[in-house]
């Protein structure tokens, strides 16, 4: 595992909301910190309403975590393109984020502790 990446269980309960809908709520979310960057919450897929997500063709590569697949969030009024990502086959040392999804927090997507 890269020394500058830390994965820990996120304290409390976390939710993700978009388009007026709760997409997920979890007591089992993970907090990933990478160097001085802000932490990212990774939700277990089992706690996400995957019906709101559509896989896209977009992907990125992180030399430490591996290849990320992306998802758009489909709401009643809009599609939020590439608003979520997942490392489906993460690199050694990053296995804890397998089967988890992270979301870009923005003015249209809220990721918050409740």
From TrEMBL:
One Pfam short name = NTP_transf_9
All copies of domain DUF427, residue ranges: 15-105
Question: Which residue positions does the secretion signal occupy?
Answer: none
Its protein name is: DUF427 domain-containing protein
């Amino acid at each position: 595992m890269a020394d500058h990446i830390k994965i820990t269980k996120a304290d409390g309960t976390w939710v993700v909301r978009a388009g007026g809908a709760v997409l997920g709520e979890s007591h089992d979310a993970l907090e990933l910190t990478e160097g001085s960057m802000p932490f990212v919450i990774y939700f277990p897929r089992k706690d996400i309403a995957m019906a709101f997500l559509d896989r896209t063709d977009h992907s990125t590569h992180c030399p430490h975590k591996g290849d990320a697949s992306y998802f758009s969030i489909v709401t009643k009024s809009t599609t939020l393109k590439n608003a979520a990502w997942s490392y489906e086959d993460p690199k050694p040392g990053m296995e804890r984020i397998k089967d988890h999804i992270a979301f870009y927090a923005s003015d249209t997507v809220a990721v918050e502790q409740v």
